[in-house]
């Protein structure tokens, strides 16, 4: 990453000192646009698409995924840039680095504890990133302050230090404030911290104000939101949202809205990949000359032009048919693809991006599952579509633009762009499809399920109303069962097979039947990291019945007992609050949030093993008597 200049310069710099480095995949999640990153030279915020566009125009950084493009209303995606080093120096080529801006601007000197900004009183160090305090000979580097303020519309600003220090002073802020942070030293609480101005006095003492009340909801009620958007280098006027004080490194400063899709046939076929690489050029080719252009392209690869023409027609047909594509429809297509054998041929050395083999469940599992899929080749595209602050905002891909328009999700650019930053995740996975009829019979035979689930559904609806978003699903026994099983299976795989839980990820396929669509009740457990872990066949090998059967049975035995039982299993769903879960805790079901699609919500182990009071049986009740009943 490289620093964005405070003022536009006349020409692009050929080389620049880097601020630090992050992985490509982090640019669309943890350290995406609008987030705060602690780098080697300070605290910075990645800039938006307007600034990022200039460093991601290379054709090699362009990728495609037709279904996700249609849902987000874009034409393509771009990978994060890879910096190019300048030989013989520590500098990098400026046009190959992701731009960032210093945030927060306010810093503190660790020696004298003065706070301020660049030029007042701190100065930029020769390395072009850090700030120095000149009161000590320019050798002491400052550190960014701990606190910022933000609102639910995504605006974020420096904490109003000058106003806060003088808020009880009748004359207001003094002409030339000189601010210092201090502590009473009696404890580590926030109330012990204070900010004082040594340029003015209140009575006989320097003007001083404690930070103890800064986190209260009323503390900044008289301070209007300035509408600052550092990642876009602008301000939005007229924001009426209440600002809140946040810690700079807190998780609620940035919640990325990441949308994803699996590459499935026909888009995953080798011929389609070849066409996708030159798609932008083909879009400008007249229909009359398209065969000749395709013939030239085919000659470069040493293949016939016919597969490329067919792939192009299929691609255009897919685009036409995706006008009204929703995430529910996209998941149904993936569900169907994972439920059938697929082994497309390699073409001109280009390997298809999807390969799946269907395996009949072993006799021990046929009562619960009707199909197992061994996906030995998977490609997932994850795109950053926006972000929220203070609270996450769940939204399906096709509704992101609407959420941005309503102010619930922050935009990535000042004006609409036809692309989004994205990352490719290549790996493997195991697909487990539950027997639909068995689930239906289980729900019908256990009416006590509905009372328990109705409480969680009411909590989910209340939270959606409180936070102002619209749900496109309901909490049902089917959802709780599949989701809870997915978490239990990931935990068991991490115990028995050496995978870390953070290296695995779930992809849920759950939907109730309606007049036009059948029910979906399946889950894909796949490698959820772009690094080398799990990418060499270790996970898909577990789909072998001889290996999978003991893992599943161990999963069910482990689900029967939790280290927090009987407290965990006896959890009243009415007390779940925003967890929207029944029996689920860190000892039994909770996972790293990178592995879960639903922020570790909507889980209930009782769906698998039954409740403690025997009001209903679990779906896997015939797996054996749970140890908590022994």
TrEMBL record:
Phylogenetic placement of the source organism: Bacteria, Pseudomonadati, Pseudomonadota, Alphaproteobacteria, Sphingomonadales
Protein's recorded name: MrfA-like Zn-binding domain-containing protein
Organism: Sphingobium chlorophenolicum
MrfA-like Zn-binding domain sequence ranges: 485-589
